[in-house]
Automatic annotation (TrEMBL):
Species name: Methylobacterium frigidaeris
Transmembrane regions: 37-58, 111-139, 151-170, 176-193, 237-259, 280-306
Compartments reported by the entry: Cell membrane
Keywords of the record: Cell membrane, Membrane, Transmembrane, Transmembrane helix, Transport
Gene this chain is encoded by: dppC_3
Stated name of the protein: Dipeptide transport system permease protein DppC
Keyword Transmembrane: yes
Record family assignment: Belongs to the binding-protein-dependent transport system permease family.
Residues in coiled coil: none
SUPFAM superfamilies assigned to the protein according to its UniProt record, in alphabetical order: MetI-like
A GO-annotated cellular component: plasma membrane
Gene Ontology terms describing biological process: transmembrane transport
Amino acid sequence: MASPAPAPVLASAGAPPSRLARFLDSDLFANFRRSKLAMAAFAATVLFIALALLAPVISPQNPYDPAQLELMNASLPPLWYADGQAPFLLGTDDQGRDVLSAVFYGMRLSLLVGVLGVLLSGFIGIGLGLIAGYAGGWVDTVIMRVADVQLTFPAILIALIVDGVAKAVAGGHMEANAQIALIVVAIGLSFWVQYARTVRGSVMVEKNKDYVQAGRLIGLSAPVILTRHILPNVTGPVFVIATINLALAIITEATLSFLGTGLPETMPSLGTLIRTGNRFLFSGEWWIVAFPGLALAGLVLAINLLGDWLRDALNPKLQ
């Protein structure tokens, strides 16, 4: 009697690649590696973020702790001048605060306000764009007409109006954390239109595709279809807008602070440091305003270059 044939051994399928592995094998990452400008912008952005996050560790002093300040150290020039003193590498301001430490702490606050403002504007704009594109009709008309009206005003003007009205209602007396929240809300209400218009256009294309019709046939609700199925397919342009708007949000916050309507001097950002140093520019103490200005310009330029590359990399017409 012949022995039975051995059962075939099924080859075990390998584990699916992780998201990181898929990203490293993607065309987007290959495009990134080919662009030296994008790599330099990414490295500069990461460096600025690291310096801001590590400010309490790497700063020579906490410039906003009165116990660490001495008026005898006021208005010292940078270290390479004959009158410069260690550890004040970039000099000090009129209150004896180390300029380098102030830049690190100010950049930290500017990035915080910028990121929170972008998240809020994205949340508002994406939500309204999804509703307008999917619902259509009078809902779409109302949302888009509001967006059109807001587009007629500069973003900085919208932020100034929101900031002024809120401070008028509060009587002009607000705590530091409340002023930070107010600036975030002002920025969020200034930049939501781009998200809404872009997402609306993408949703109007996606909602007529077969997978959306199938979702409706099996009884999925509109919020489920929007959040689980349509939203992941419209995130590409959103990332581009968010990257570019981060630079715009940082500039908006710096402008508001420079005009004296932004963050308080007890919690200064880069804009507040520039406003403070501007008073001493013509007295020869140029370093008080120059280094915060250079930090702001470098940070915004790096983010903008990264956003421009991302926009081109995700544009199928340029592939």
